[in-house]
Design brief:
alpha+beta, four-stranded antiparallel sheet, two-stranded antiparallel sheet
């Protein structure tokens, strides 16, 4: 199949409502937690594969937090090699 190549090792920004204690996500190695003044927590993750992203989203769901946005940081993506 021709077309855009899939990417790996991408970065994502996830904004959630409220200020989340960073210890709640301590089991994730590559998550940065920043509390923004407007009552939002910004999570930045550099994932090895889509399973990392899905694991984080599942963990946030289990914690009952509301996801405000999820954005790909395309500058951090690396092309997948054959």
């Amino acid at each position: 199949m021709n077309g855009p190549r899939p990417h790996t090792n991408c970065g994502y920004e996830i904004r959630i409502k409220g200020h989340l204690n960073p210890r709640r996500l301590s089991w994730f190695e590559a998550v940065t937690v920043v509390h923004l003044p407007e009552g939002v927590t910004l999570l930045t993750i550099r994932e090895k594969d889509q399973a990392d992203l899905h694991a984080l989203l599942n963990a946030l769901n289990d914690l009952g937090v509301m996801i405000v946005s999820l954005n790909l940081i395309s500058e951090l993506c690396e092309p997948e090699h054959d």
